[in-house]
Amino acid sequence: MDLQYTPEQNQLRESVERFVREEYDFAHRRKLVASESGHDERCWRSYAEFGWLAVPFSEEDGGIGGDATDTGIVMEGIGRGLLLEPYLANVVLAGGVLSAVGSAGQKAEWLQPMMAGAHKLALAYAEPASRYELAHCETTARREGEGYRIDGRKSFVHGGGVADFHVVIARTSGEPSDRAGLTALVVDARAPALEVRPYATHDGSRAADLVLEGLHVDASRRLGEEGAAYPALELVIDQAIAAIASEAVGAMSTLVDMTLDYLKTRQQFGRPIGTNQALQHRMVDMYIALDEARSMALYGALMLGEADAAVRRKALSATKIEIDRTARRVGQEAVQLHGAMGVTEELAVGHYFKRLSMIGVAFGDMSWHLQRHAQA
To answer: How far apart are CA 160 and CA 223, in angstroms?
Structure first.
């Protein structure tokens, strides 16, 4: 198997790296964290112009026909620059569900405008009591006239505070933990019966909780068959795991580079602290952890094409376990080797560590994936 990037993939990688280097320095990011929206609309439009928002979608859907490796290239660049725009929420999560089960007309109405940067999407699937169990859904969608009445709550909706439309997973039949009976419905963020509660997360990105009370949507806003959304949701979350694995590799890569530069320049007793053999060994350990993470991120992206869902789930759990382990190792070493300044707001190191910590608990923490891997 040839694991080298194609010329087109190298061009994509170079475009993302150039954008991060020239348009998205740490000072700019700090301003965005303190802003009301938490991201830069000008940068979001640039994502659309560069074609990044269309990367994983087929040409029939209006995309450029990329695969998980292409998405991983963009996500690695996002990790390098700690970009705050809701790429994961739009392209991987909500866009993934629309691409998997939406009709041609629905894709033209919601997916293609998202690719053009005209509006933003978010996927609302998690609930306060669900933890990491995708099937656990207490939000209901009952038939009412020519549509559905939705009642319930959704928590930690990535990019939910700025979304124009939410893809809501609701239960149309069955018990709260049944895999069957889940339905995907598109909800307008301006609907009067929808309350959006946005907030900033630990790493500076944004999420929101949703409260839906008697919200009515037309049947034309149902994505796919009624009660059959679970397989698509499961696949999309596996795709999100592969995506954040690549993002973690980008963040770890930057931390390794920053730490090496610091060891070369920080003077103690008249010489760089990097001449200390013990610190050199720790630096080598960071490099090894980074290479292990990069290999597992690529493995996860390749295994998304596995036809057997059980095999795919096991592979993505293995990816998440290794990414969490290596991210913790690299993040902790970077902070410790920088000393007390490693956790200050003024230094980027602590911000990268925060993002890696959030990736560690996203879409299932290490303990949860160890259990899923063992059961598989």
So the answer is: 19
Nearest to 209 by CA among 266, 168, 171, 181: 168
Q: Which domains does the chain have, with CATH numbers?
A: 7-119 (1.10.540.10), 122-228 (2.40.110.10), 231-375 (1.20.140.10)
What does pLDDT average to over the chain?
95
Q: DSSP alpha helices (H): ranges in the chain? A: 7-23, 26-33, 41-50, 68-81, 87, 95-101, 104-106, 112-115, 230-265, 277-303, 309-338, 348-361, 366-375
Containing H/E element for 309? helix 309-338
pLDDT-derived band of residue 2, with 50, 70 and 90 as boundaries?
low
- CA dist., res. 253 & res. 76, Å (int): 9
State the alpha helices, DSSP H only, in 159-276.
230-265
pTM over 0.90: yes
